[in-house]
Structure formats: structure tokens, C-alpha cells
Input
Amino acid sequence: MHGDTENYKIEILSFLAQSSEPVGSGLLSRLFVSKGVELSEATIGRILRQMDQDNWTLRIGFQGRTITEVGRVMLAELKTLRKRQIFSNQFIETLELTKIDDLVDILVARRAIERELARLAALNANADEVQLLLDMVTEQGQYEVKERISAEHDVKFHKLLAKASKNKVLAAAMELIGYDAQLSPILERIRTEVEGELVNDHSEIVKAIRERDPDKAEIAMIFHVDSLISDVKRYRSSVKK
Output
């Protein structure tokens, strides 16, 4: 249902972005019907009220809604996220068991590298980098509460962690083994399927870095990557059935 709501928001915002006048629920409902989707005015009204609260849309009296600048930014973001979701869905549908094993191998390699990156970040991260990591975890948590894709935040988190380590060789090694904007949505999709968690893992890592405790940071990172490996293996078991 959540995925449907996100698609409805994209369609509504897209229509508002193309309209030079305010648009009401009735017209939007007819638009969905023309596309083969039965969506009542009441449901559209609930979606619009939520988008009003988020400042994505603006109500103009009884005339209807217009899209705000925030809404235009969110429309572009939602379209990007939908493309990534489609990509990860297609990947999951065609993912062979041998390729899942490849994912496990990649994660094992990541564990070896990132445990050291976490240690070094605890020792070398400056105050600004620590604050950026804290802010990123907070923002990612807000995204997960809204059930929106956080893959991009995951990529940024690990890149910032690598930068904070002050070790360019290890940071380059992370790039080499393929931790990028394509792998992260795939892992997130798998974690969603098996109901894994992400933000709590990151929070513990950042907490250790803030406390300047390299041992604790390493342990938190190992736990994080091991939980990823466990989720991938659980997914592999589920597709075998």
C-alpha cells in the first residue's frame, strides 16, 4: 500500500507541476480513472492534506492545490527513488543464487576494510565530520520512519566514514569492491524483504566515533556488516524454498 501511495503522490505532483491553475480532488480523481486507477476523492484529499503539511502543495481556497517549490524538489527526488526501486526490483527478480553468494563475498571484503575504517574514523575524524555523521543518521532515521528509500543516505554515510578515516588507500579499496549507488539499493531491498534494520547499526558506529573509541567503533562496524551478511543469507534461504 505504501508503494501505491508514493506512486499516487508522484502522479499528483506531476499533474500539478504541469498545470498553470489550482487543481481540485475531483479533477485528480478523473485523471486517475483515465489511467485505469479507481481512486476516490476522499483518498486523494487525504494524500493532499499530508502533502500540504509537508509543504509540497499549497491549498488555494476552494479552487484546489498548486505545487510548491519544495514539492517540485520532492517530485524530482521521488522520481529518482522510483527509478532506483524499479532497478532493484528487476535485479532481485533475476538474481541467481550464485550472484547472492557474490554479494556475500563482497560484504566479507567490506567487513575487512570497514572495520579498520571505523577504527581510524574514531581516531581521526574532526568535529565537523562527526557532526555530519550524526546529522546523516538523524536524517536517515526520519526517512525510514516515513518508509522511504534510504539507500542514497547509506552510500553517503559510508563514503563520509571513509573520508573521516583519513586513509585514502582504504577508501579507494571500498570503491574498488563495488560499494556504490547500485549495490546499496540492492542490499536495502533485500533487507526490506527480510525486515532487517539499518539506522540502529549506523547509530552505534557514530556513537563510538563520537566517543573516540576505536575498539567500540570496530565492533559496531563488524556487527553492522555481519547483520547485512545474515540478511542476505536469509534472503537466499527464502528464495530457495
